[in-house]
Design a protein that fits this description.
300 residues, 9 helices, globular, four-stranded mixed sheet, 2 domains, Spore Coat Polysaccharide Biosynthesis Protein SpsA, Chain A, 16% strand, five-stranded mixed sheet
Length: 300
């Protein structure tokens, strides 16, 4: 048995650029070594062939919503049933991950029984297949430091958690906004520590456009994203990395460092009425804090 089962539901491999960055991401996971099992979930074009080429497992027959978009609940169930490792990890199929993910996950699992690992990503433009010969991770780090930039602390493009958690997930549409924010909210509501590993893990998002989505629109503009928000219970249930209650750095857990963004977000959450109703002075103040935070982060 290994340590971690890393799974994803890739987009179709029909768009050349999407195919390239997904191949890069999944290859980086394969190169994390024998303690990491990689699972590709879904029936989209090119998934089965990619799994065969990379020597990893393919889980087909995922449940979909009426528009044909795979459901997060089914993706997680299939991965859990197919794996036996103590930790599960979901990552978007465009995320390059390095050995620091494995070591950080191991250290956190030794400290906590239940947890959800999240973190900010780095953005990097990648147009070609990467070289995964020895030293690939050091070369990638250098490239990210040279021309990449750290993304703002909005949602999360990767999660790590013990396999006994998240057994019941609403039928969110994958690849649409909101479901990742609900993951953080749900963990906080359950009392599971949400651990921000931004200072310990360099997770790299390969930039892309939205030509693969209906009308070429960004995912947060789609009706399925509005449906995801409704399934989450409304905007008040959409949390972000700023809502983590632990940080992990230099092998230790500690309270999050207070920043302007975190202070604004804490005030926003505390002042928002529990039922989310738009009324009263508390709601007015919460809206003011939210607008200020959005000006800085450009999200949610």
């Amino acid at each position: 048995m290994g340590l971690l089962s890393l799974f994803t539901a890739p987009k179709p491999f029909t768009n050349p650029h999407i195919a390239t960055i997904q191949r890069n991401a999944i290859s980086s996971w394969v190169h994390l070594g024998p303690e990491v099992e990689v699972l590709l979930v879904g029936d989209e074009a090119g998934i089965a062939e990619t799994a065969t080429q990379l020597g990893i497992r393919h889980l087909a027959r995922v449940a979909c919503n009426p528009t044909g978009t795979p459901l997060v609940s089914s993706i997680f169930d299939l991965a859990r049933q197919a794996s036996h490792n103590p930790l599960l990890a979901y990552a978007n199929a465009d995320m390059l991950l390095m050995p620091d993910l494995l070591e950080t996950s191991r250290q956190i699992a030794a400290l906590l029984k239940r947890f959800l690992v999240v973190g900010q990503r780095w953005d990097l433009e990648v147009r070609e297949l990467l070289d995964f010969s020895p030293g690939w991770d050091q070369r990638l780090r250098q490239e990210v430091c040279r021309r990449g930039h750290r993304h703002l602390p909005a949602g999360s493009d990767f999660f790590v958690f013990p396999r006994q958690l998240f057994h019941q997930i609403p039928d969110f549409a994958i690849g649409r906004a909101g479901w990742d924010n609900w993951m953080i909210y749900h963990a906080r509501q359950q009392g599971w520590p949400v651990v921000d590993v931004t200072l310990s893990i360099m997770a790299v998002h390969q930039e892309h456009d939205y030509s693969h989505l209906p009308g070429g629109q960004a995912h947060y503009n789609l009706e399925e994203s509005r449906q995801n928000q409704a399934l989450a219970g409304g905007a008040n249930h959409l949390y972000m990395v700023l809502d983590s209650d632990k940080q992990f750095s230099q092998g230790k857990l500690h309270p999050p460092k207070m920043t302007l963004l975190r202070a604004l977000r804490m005030a926003e959450v505390r002042l928002t009425p529990p039922d989310g109703r738009q009324r009263g002075g508390r709601w007015f103040l919460a809206r003011r804090f939210r607008r200020l935070r959005r000006r800085i982060t450009g999200s949610l």
